[in-house]
Amino acid sequence: MKNPNFNLILNNAIDSLGHAVEHYINDLSNNDHWHNEKWIILSIHHAASLLTMYILHEIDNNNRLFKHDRSPKFQYPDLKDSIKEIKKFDVPTISKSELKLLEIFNRLNIIRNQLMHQTPPSDISENLVSFASISLISITKMIARKKQTSFINILNEISESHDIVFQKIHWKNHDEYFSFMEEFIHEEFKWHELGICPSCNAYSINGRKCEICFEEVDEIICEKCNEEFYVISNLTIVHECPSCNNTIEKLTI
């Protein structure tokens, strides 16, 4: 049961991410933090549901979730059901990074359900907003792959104010994100040697930017042992070589 308009699903997901960014912006300008943070989470969850449904449709467009016993109309399954169906498949039908993405979505679904179907918390913690934010980044990465365009192109399509999302992220608190991104960049750059990021310690440097935590970096060559390594740009002008502990005061790009 292939839906001829199914590619519009990704556009719908991008629109929901844009709605989330509007609430990030509103959260800076008014005191209704709970309302804005709730809608950040709900909007990103909606985008996750759409992307997961899209992935399921890619690998099994006749899946039972797309059918209805009493109607010939195309049905749209929820996030939890789509995840269960996708997990019945294995690599190479589905990529390792997509399976890792589902782990992020499982946690996001728990967070959303507490807001929608349980007694909600009186305050939405910074860590929950941070997790929603890394979910937005993860969704954007996968949509860019599906649309065969760049990550930055999709970010700009979501909102020109997308930088605000990165300000909400506490990178070191989200193992699911790093697990997903390590698989994702391995698939994207499998024939490239990636440098070690000095911020998140992952093999994720492509050019002068980390593909995982998005820090901009400079490359340094130690004059004593010729070791090449990366440092965070504009952080300090004095560095210590990780190989020989030589102090380096001058950048050699």
Please give the structural blueprint:
Layout lengths: L7 H22 L3 H27 L19 H8 L9 H22 L8 H22 L3 H8 L4 H5 L7 H14 L6 E2 L6 E4 L2 E2 L6 E5 L6 E5 L6 E2 L6 E2 L5
Antiparallel strand pairs: 1-2, 2-3, 4-5, 6-7
Largest sheet, spatial ordering of strands: 1-2-3
Strand content: 5-15%
Give the topology string: H per helix, E per strand.
HHHHHHHHEEEEEEE
Count the strands? 7
What does this structure look like?
The protein has 253 residues and is mostly helical. The chain has one domain. The protein contains 8 helices and 7 strands, in the order H-H-H-H-H-H-H-H-E-E-E-E-E-E-E. The strands form 3 sheets. A 3-stranded antiparallel sheet has the order 1-2-3, with no helix packed on it. Strands 4-5 form a two-stranded antiparallel sheet. Strand 2 and strand 3 form a beta hairpin. Helix 4 packs antiparallel against helix 8. The mean pLDDT is 88.
Outline:
The chain is mostly helical.
Please name the defining characteristics of this protein:
mainly alpha, 253 residues, three-stranded antiparallel β-sheet
